Every structure is written in C-alpha cells, then in structure tokens.
Amino acid sequence: MLYTQKILANETFVITPLELQTKLSSQPNSLLIYDVRSVEQYNTEHIPQAISFPFMSTYEKKNNGYYVKDKKHIESLLREHGITNDKMIVLYDDGSLFHASRLYWVLALYGVKNIKIINGGLTLWKQQYSTSKIKTDISNSEYIPILNSSIYANQIIAKIASHNQDIYSLLDSRSYEEYIGETSVTDKRGHIPNALFINLKDFFVELPNGVNWLKNIEYLKDNLSHIPRTKKIITYCNKGTASGLSFLILKYAGYNVAHYDGSWIDWSLSDLPVEK
User: Fold this and answer.
1) Which of 201, 33, 40 is nearest to 125 (CA)?
2) What pLDDT, on the 0 to 100 scale, is given for residue 123?
3) Angle value at C-alpha 118, between 53 and 3, nearest 5 degrees
4) Measuring CA to CA, which of 4, 42, 63, 196 is 20 to 30 A from 218?
C-alpha cells in the first residue's frame, strides 16, 4: 500500500480529479479549465466549466512541418480564450497527457504561469464525476505574451546540440521502432545523430480501471539516470506532442530543458544526417 501511495503521488505540474473537484466546489472562480481536444469532442462531453482550446490551434503548418504560431497569432489566441496569470490554468486531454503537454509548453513559452494538467485526463474524470455538454463562455483577456526563449529550440539549436555533446544532449521521445529506424512518419529513418532515447511508457502505471497514470518523479529517476544533468537537454518527437511531455517531466525533475519546435519532421525535411 505504501508503494502504491508513493507511486501515485501528485506531481508539481499535474492535478488529480479529486483536487480539481475540490477547487471547483470551493473556489470555482480561481480556475480556468481548458479542454485541449477537438471542438467536436468538446461538444460531445467535457468537464463542467471547461473551455474549448484545441491544442492544434497553436500549430502553424509550413512545408509539411508543424511549428508553434508566432507571437502575434498566439497573443490573439490567448486573449480569445481568456488566459490570465491571475488564475490557475488547468489543461486536460483524453489521458495520454501528450496533447495537454503540448499546449502547456506553448503557454509556458509565452509566459503563462501556474499551469496544471489533469492526471488521467477526461478518462479518469468520467469514472469519478459527471461531465457536461454546456458550452462555457469566456470573456477576452488583455494578456500580453512574454517569450521564454530558454525553453525553445529550433533546427539551428538542434544541429548545434547534435555536434556539441559537451554542452547539449538531444532526447528522442518517439517510439523505439522509430528511433532505430524500423519505421518513420517521413522518408528518413533513424534519429538525429547522438540523440538518446526515452521511453515514455516507462513514466506511466496502468491503474486497475485501465487509466494511465503519470508516476511520481521519485519513481522515474531510474528511467532518467542515462540523461546527464550537467547538459542542456533538447527534446523532440515527430511534431511536438510526445516531446512536450518529456519536456515537462525533465523540467520538474530539475533538468535544464528545451523543446525542439518542428522536431523530427522539421529535421527530416532538410538535408541533414541521421543515425540508426
């Protein structure tokens, strides 16, 4: 029982359904809850008081690559969704945490504070509490984005990281089959030279009800032991969802970490080397 309690303990960037329900009951005006799934999924059912904010709306597609939108467009999005640093921001997806983590990174990149992700997502929430179909209206805010460039990496930085292993370490958050070149979403197979592999499945425990639950950071240290703490870590995946989660896990485990915007698809679109 002690092991179970520890492994299921809450982490800095996650909030449990129970904790959220408690806040909704006692301090409903202190929260902004965002459903990062599609509008269609939101309309089917969502957590009461949640606002639809599809994570895909933060992407800009250029030359088949996916990148975060520029400051002007993000500012408009954040204001339309009522973003403010005066309230706790709570994000959720279906429970994978990938899509919620992507939006978390975008918000953090543009200076939003006090962000949480629901551990277990909507899947776990539905097993404990009711959902709603009522659309939540939100007033525009006057939020002014402030870029946090320390958590952003582009292709130039990724190339530097690949060649300068004394200062940087690249971290591949895709599947192992993609990492070793057995499969790929692009014409290129393999990984960015000198990148390490991280298996995100190791970061979750499956609960008896089928929900994937993010483990306590203390139980993840063995899975992080191959990642050097003395270097700047650059995470990447295919287009920036899975690596958003690895970014968060490393950030709250005390690493100096940034996310490679564009990720493997961006790297593959250029005439750059790969390893298998």
Assistant:
1) 33
2) 94
3) 165
4) 196
Residues 106 and 192 placed together within one structural domain of the fold: no
Distance CA 104, CA 119 (A): 13
Give me the residue label for tokens 């920036």.
240
Q: Is the Cβ–Cβ distance between 118 and 99 less than 8 Å?
A: no
The number of folded domains in the chain is 2
Report the relative pairing of strands 212-214 and 204-206 from DSSP bridges.
Answer: antiparallel
| C-alpha 135 chain-centroid distance | 25
Lookup: tokens for 61 = 């597609």
φ, ψ dihedrals at 3, nearest 5°: -60, -45
Q: What is the pLDDT of residues 160-196, one digit of tens each?
A: 999 999 999 999 999 999 999 999 999 999 999 999 9
pLDDT category, 8, cuts 50, 70, 90? very low
* 165 within 8 A of 159, measured Cβ to Cβ: no
Token pair belonging to 36: 């990062």
Q: Has residue 178 been placed in a domain?
A: yes
Q: Which domain holds residue 256?
A: 149-269
Q: What is the DSSP letter of 132?
A: B
Same domain, 170 and 263: yes
Cα(47)–Cα(108) distance, integer angstroms: 23
d(CA 176, CA 200): 10
Nearest to 86 by CA among 32, 136, 140, 49: 32
Residues in the chain, total: 276
